[in-house]
Amino acid sequence: MASFSVVSNITSAYAQTNLQATQMGLQKALNRLSSGYRINQSGDDAAGLAVANKYRTESAILGQGIRNANDGLSDLQIKDGAMSNVATLLDRLATLATQAASGKAGLDLGALNTEFTKVKDEITREATVAGLNDGSSFSVFVSNAADASTGMVSGNVDAVTLTDLGINNTSIGSQEDAVAAVADIAGAVGVLGGIQGEVGSLQNSLQFAISLAQSQLVNTKGAESRIRDANVAEEAANMTRYNILSQSGIAALSQANQSTSAVLSLLR
Fold first, then answer.
1. CB 72 within 8 A of CB 140
2. Fewest 10 Å CB contacts: which of 10, 49, 164, 249?
3. Do 177 and 247 belong to one domain?
4. Within a domain: residue 2?
5. Same-domain status, 123 and 206
6. Are 53 and 141 in contact, with CB atoms under 8 Å apart?
7. Counted domains in the chain
8. What DSSP string describes 126-181?
9. Rounded to an integer, what is the distance from CA 212 to the centroid of its chain?
C-alpha cells in the first residue's frame, strides 16, 4: 500500500543522493581531463601513486646520469684530441732523431737538437693545458642500479708527460744520442698508444652506458605514464555520461519535490 507523507520526502532524498554521486563523478572526470592525470590525489589510487612516484624518481636519476655521462664523454674527447696532437709531435721527434742518426756530412746537429727540444717543450705545454700531466682516476655515475658500483663507469687515465713517455732526457746532440732517441721515441709511441687505448675504452663504455640509460629512461617514463596519466577517451566518455545523469538527476529532483505538494490536494 502506498504511503503519502509531507514530513519526509524519501523520493527527493534518493534523488539528491544520486545527484551528489553524479556530481562527484563529473568533478573527477573534469579534474582528470583538465590535469591530464588519472591520479591527482592519493585517494585516486594510493598503490598506483606509490609505484608511479618510484618510476618518476628513477626517471630523474636516469636523466641526470645521461647528463653526467655526456659531460664525462666531453672531458675524454678533450683528452683524446690532445693525445692525437702529442702523437703528431712524437712523429716529428722521430723524424728529427732519424735525420740526426744518419751521420750525414754537413748535418747541423745543433739546429736539429734545438728543434727537438722545442717539440718536447710543446708536448709538455699541451699535456698541461689538456690536463694530461697528472694521471687520475675517472668515474661517472650513469645508471640507477641498486648497487652504486654497477651504475658507475670508471677507469684510470695515466699521465702523459715526458717522464712517463720515457723521453725526458732524450736528445739528439750527437749521432749516438740520436740513435738511442729513435728507440726511446718508439717506446714513447707505444706508451701513448696504451693511454689512448684507456681513453678509447672509457669512451666506448660511456657511449654504451648512455644508450642503455636512454632506453631505460624511455621505458620508465612509459611505465609511469601508464599508471599516472589519464585515458582521455575514457574520461571524455565519463564526462558525457555524468553530464547526462546530472541533467536527468536535476529533473528527477524537481519532480520529487513537486510530488509532496501534490499530497496537499487530498486535504481540500
1. yes
2. 10
3. no
4. no
5. yes
6. no
7. 2
8. HHHHTT-SS-EEEEEE----SSGGGGEEEEEE----HHHHT-TT---SSHHHHHHH
9. 10
Name 154's bridge partners: 139
β-bridge mates for residue 90, sequence order: none
In the chain the beta strands, taken as DSSP E runs, fall at: 136-141, 152-157
Is 5 inside a domain boundary? no
pLDDT in tens, 90-148: 999 999 999 998 877 567 888 999 999 999 999 999 999 988 888 778 889 888 666 66
List of E strands, 145-222: 152-157
Closest Cα partner for 211 from 69, 64, 56?
Answer: 69
Q: Which of 30, 66, 86 is nearest to 142 (CA)?
A: 66
Report how far residue 215's alpha carbon sits from residue 221's, in angstroms, rounded to the nearest whole number: 10
User: Do 86 and 160 contact (CB within 8 A), yes or no?
Assistant: yes
Give a yes or no: residue 158 inside a domain.
yes
Predicted model pTM: 0.75
Residue 172 and residue 178 in contact, taking contact as beta carbons nearer than 8 Å: yes
